[in-house]
Amino acid sequence: MLITVAGDSMALDLQPGDLALIDQDRNAWEHNRVAALIDLDGGLRIKRILLDPGRALALSYGNHAHPPELRSRHEAARLTCLGRVVWSGHHWR
Questions:
Q1: What is the pTM of this model?
Q2: What domain range includes position 77?
Q3: How far from each other are the two terminal CA atoms of the chain, in whole angstroms?
Q4: What φ, ψ does residue 36 adopt, rounded to 5°?
Q5: Burial (CB count within 10 angstroms: exposed 0-12, middle 13-18, buried 19+), residue 84
Q6: What is the CATH number of the domain that holds 52?
Q7: Per-residue pLDDT reduced to its tens digit, 45-65
Q8: What pLDDT shows up at residue 64?
Q9: Contact 47, 37 (CB under 8 A)
Q10: How far apart are alpha carbons 20 and 85 in whole angstroms?
Q11: Residues lower than pLDDT 50 in the chain
């Protein structure tokens, strides 16, 4: 799956307009990996996943202007991991 990045929340890793290739066969939650997911509101998001046994997981942005979002175990169970980001391409303007 190829996704066009929107927004600047992952600005240290991905820029708006970048293309991100998602490996849908690698759809398990992995600590410190960037993944595409369907969030609680149904929106598609690309975030770095930080697993914390006490809190379930945190969605890290990679942009220090955006603090990580913590998800409880109950909330985490309602998220869908679409796959891991395995490549990204940047269009030089």
A1: 0.84
A2: 2-89
A3: 24
A4: -95, 135
A5: buried
A6: 2.10.109.10
A7: 999 999 987 768 899 887 888
A8: 81
A9: yes
A10: 6
A11: none
